[in-house]
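Quick one, probably user error.
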């Protein structure tokens, strides 16, 4: 069928030709970071993966940002400032192209909106104590990638340390996911994205056995994870 010759065309036609800027592409992108060790490949394939369903740059740039966060978490970057430096450097370049600028303007946002929110995350971390209402006001908890991917990244970085709203008995990965749930809104997607970053950083040791067993086909998922690990470490 002629309609199948360009697999990206249906996504471009959505929302009167504006394309989706939701967070679905970002929610599913973590596997890209687990398969490709080179940061340029991570950005390239994260964008392609998201463009199948999210043609607006605020959708696929959110997927790129999420993939980058998993990438740097997997590399064990534990310094929060350096982690954000990496993301800001990459995203300021990603968001500099004409389509990113025009899409942001069309939707009423400033230039480089993801980069701006990453800088807001740095301010929040420097403040230390930030109310949930301030997090929601500045970062959001909605279904748009812009209003959820930065929130997931903040949740991961904030929950490297204890949080008064989360029991001390929880480890860092559990704390990250529980904090996302406390924020409300699109909790399943935000917690999934933050959990992917935290999982890449902390490893399976922090995933409680009861959590694993409550997930559908968790044993098959662990086999797939082992396969991705082997692929990641293949020589170039």
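Nope, works fine. Designed sequence:
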């Amino acid at each position: 069928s002629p309609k199948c010759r360009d697999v990206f065309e249906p996504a471009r036609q959505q929302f009167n030709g504006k394309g989706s800027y939701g967070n679905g592409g970002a929610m599913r992108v973590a596997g890209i970071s687990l398969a490709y060790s080179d940061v340029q490949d991570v950005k390239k394939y994260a964008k392609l993966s998201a463009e199948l369903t999210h043609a607006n740059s605020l959708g696929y740039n959110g997927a790129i940002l999420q993939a980058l966060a998993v990438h740097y978490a997997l590399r064990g970057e534990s310094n929060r400032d350096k982690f954000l430096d990496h993301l800001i450097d990459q995203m300021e370049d990603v968001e500099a192209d004409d389509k990113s600028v025009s899409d942001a303007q069309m939707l009423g946002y400033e230039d480089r909106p993801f980069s701006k929110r990453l800088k807001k995350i740095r301010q929040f971390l420097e403040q230390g104590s930030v109310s949930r209402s301030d997090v929601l006001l500045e970062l959001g908890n909605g279904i748009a990638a812009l209003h959820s991917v930065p929130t997931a990244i903040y949740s991961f970085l904030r929950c490297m340390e204890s949080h008064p709203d989360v029991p001390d008995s929880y480890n860092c990965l559990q704390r990250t996911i529980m904090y996302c749930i406390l924020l409300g809104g699109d909790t399943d997607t935000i917690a999934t994205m933050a959990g992917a970053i935290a999982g890449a950083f902390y490893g399976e040791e922090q995933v409680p056995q009861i959590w694993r067993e409550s997930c559908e086909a968790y044993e098959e998922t662990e086999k797939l994870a082992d396969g991705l690990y082997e692929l990641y470490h293949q020589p170039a």
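DSSP finds 14 helices and no strands in the chain.
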